[in-house]
Design brief:
Radius of gyration: 30 Å
Strand order of the largest sheet: 2-1-3
Number of helices: 3
Number of strands: 3
Structural class: alpha+beta
């Protein structure tokens, strides 16, 4: 702008409009990021819910060697980890009673099965 001429009211209004437009664009970008984050969280929640619904009724978690059982879990237990294998009710009862595999302290399958230690 020409420095010799003073700013008019119209110049100041146009400047104010550009400032507001810039702030609005930044706020919209921020809202878009929040929406995208929330959509990602919701998709993850839906994925976990679907995985939990598809989970077996009972699971036996194996140790690092893959042979020894570490815990018996209720299907869908968040503490089961990746080494848990789905089993039937009879196998879960046998593991708890005959094999002496401990019940998961989080989901307490022994209570759900009606077996108390």
């Amino acid at each position: 702008m020409n420095e010799d001429r003073p700013l008019t009211r119209l110049d100041m209004l146009r400047f104010a409009r550009r400032v507001v437009e810039h702030q609005a664009a930044r706020q919209l970008a921020l809202m878009d990021r929040w929406i995208a984050d929330e959509e990602r969280r919701e998709a993850e929640r839906q994925r976990r819910l679907a995985a939990r619904q598809n989970a077996p009724e009972w699971a036996v978690e194996h140790g690092l060697n893959g042979r020894s059982a570490v815990y018996v879990h209720v299907g869908g237990c968040t503490g089961a980890g990746g080494r848990a294998k789905g089993v039937g009710r009879e196998q879960a009862v046998r593991a708890l009673t005959e094999a002496g595999v401990p019940a998961c302290p989080l989901c307490r399958p022994d209570t759900a099965l009606g077996i108390l230690e």
